[in-house]
Each structure stands twice: as structure tokens, then as C-alpha cells.
């Protein structure tokens, strides 16, 4: 699946490059290069890999705010923040996957314009997580505890997009180094496992679509 996603992104990059080369209209000389913009965007998320198979998330959505500052003719830097909610596979079931979780990203990035409309972009930063999952297993009694786990993790996202005036549409593949934010599942009740050490990191990824409007 990751190979398919990367192939899709590469294809979009190729289309953007060809389209950009075909555009011969010059940038108006009076257009500010180092302008400042503020934008608001609707987010859609399609969980991939373990985020879908292990944590049973089916879809996500939210809202992000983005600040951009031009530093060259075709390059600007970005600061993006907001919140994205993740919905489980089956809200009607009585298992731990009945509760939504929340991602709160704070990312820095750079966007390079391929002509007048298409662009390539990369972002990285911290994502604060509030994940509902199994938090503890007592190996003596067999009791399983569930609840929200608050944490923070590193995330990064390559993306491609298109801008038409104030409309900004971007597609990205976002990866989190540990969806639990460093707060892994704990074992209790058996010898050395009683130290409360968590499991190894649980990377997670999703395909994100942002439809934004710049002011």
C-alpha cells in the first residue's frame, strides 16, 4: 500500500512538473515575493497500515490553520497547526475501538512552486496525541484496562498541491513515529515486567487531503 501511495505522489509530481513547464505566462512584476498569508483548511484523513489494521481507525477529519511567508520568488515557509479527529471502524461495537482519538499537529514546512499553480511541499514537527487504546494488562489477573493516552510524537509529511488564487488543495502522506506518544502498553503483575515499561514504538501513517482558503 505504501508503494502505491508513493507511486501516486510521484505521478502527481510528474504531472505538476509537466504542467508547470507548459505554463509560459510570467509572474506579474508587481506581485509581492515575500508576502505573508493566513489560511484555514478542512482536513480529511484516510488511515493506512497499523493505524487502520491495529487501531481500527477508518477515517478522520478536522481543521487546520496555516501561516505562510514568502522568502523567494517560488519559495515560502509555513507554520501549520490544528486538530484532526480519528474515527474507529465501528462506533456501534462495545470494544475499545468505539472512541475517537485526536491528533494536534504543530509543523514547520517549506513550499516550492512549480510554475503558477502546482507546488511541492514538505512539513515536519510535533504532533500531540490523545489516543484511546488498551493501556494496561495485569498478567496475574488478566484484567485489561482501556482509556485515553496523552502524548507527543514526531511527524513528517511530503505533499503535492495546487493553488488557484486563494484556493489551496494539497495531498500528503503523513507519518507519525509513535502514535501513542511514547506512552506504550504496560504489563503488571509478573516479575521484571512489573516495572511498567511500555512496548516499542508504534509508527502510524495516513493519507491527508487539505482544502484551504487563504486570506
Automatic annotation (TrEMBL):
Signal peptide per UniProt: 1-22
Keywords attached to this entry: Signal
Keyword Signal: yes
Name assigned to this protein: Outer membrane protein beta-barrel domain-containing protein
